Automatic annotation (TrEMBL):
InterPro entries: FAM173A/B, Methyltransf_25, SAM-dependent_MTases_sf, TAT_signal. Coiled coil: none annotated. The keyword Oxidoreductase does not apply. It comes from the Bacteria. This is Class I SAM-dependent methyltransferase. Gene3D superfamilies: Vaccinia Virus protein VP39. Keywords: Methyltransferase, S-adenosyl-L-methionine, Transferase. Residues 78-148 form the Methyltransferase domain. It comes from Ottowia beijingensis. GO terms for molecular function: protein-lysine N-methyltransferase activity. One of its GO terms (biological process) is methylation.
Amino acid sequence: MNRLHTISQALPRRQWLRAAAGAAVLGTVPVWAQRSPGFGTYQPEPFQAGKDVVWVPTPDALVTRMLQMAGVTRHDHVIDLGAGDGKIVIAAARQFGARALGIEFNPELVAHAQRRARAAGVADRARIVQGDIFEADLSAASVITLYLLTELNLKLRPTLLRLKPGTRLVTHAFGMGTWQPDEHSRAGGATAYLWLVPANVGGHWRLSYPRDGQTVNVQMTVARQVFQFPEGTVHLGAAETSLRDARVAGERVRWAFTDTDGVVRQFSGRVDGARIEGTVTGGGASARFSAERQGEAPAILVSA
């Protein structure tokens, strides 16, 4: 216990988690925690070796904050990758009424977490199963939680980006490389990061919106989308102008441009496959707009 206290003071949390992970690979992880009674004979110990990382429990206050950031409700299906003792899936079910699934590689931890779920009275909504997070089917999730090293997040990133737009991803401590989080928060002395899986708005669009009692039809081209940041142009007759303040947040998208009247038109809408519908404002007026994609969408681009 004293050694853990000394290391945790000397190094930021993410650094001593990396150090412990390295020790686990070498088979030199020390026992730094006392066993506690209850929940059967097996008790997990902080920094015990696992398949990809050592096990370190997330602070209770951060667990709650992570689920709040994801906006978890009883309508959600939460999947926790590397479930450990099951505290996140149990909290999702007990505090937020969600259905939750924890995927954990260590069978002893799985059995321990299952006992905890039964003791909490949520075993019908909080399941913990033995499995490999890199082989699991995550398509049913509306929320995914993780406490993994950055290199493991990056390994999972292509799979996560293919999930349904609007799926919420929340990590404890570690990021997703150059994929900027949509929000970050601190609680319990630790940091959580939130990402919304972005819809793909790339390609050529026929954009229609009203102006001065008439319908304006223009060509909008999103030449590339890097994560949640699209880049493109609008063709206004003889003029062409770039999109400004363009951003995708899950299924929601916004952008703006200056039209040939010198009015800044601001668009905010919802993406539904090859169609966007929403509201355009500008010149003191507000109206509905629509956009139809012409052809295929290029892939969302990523950087390391």
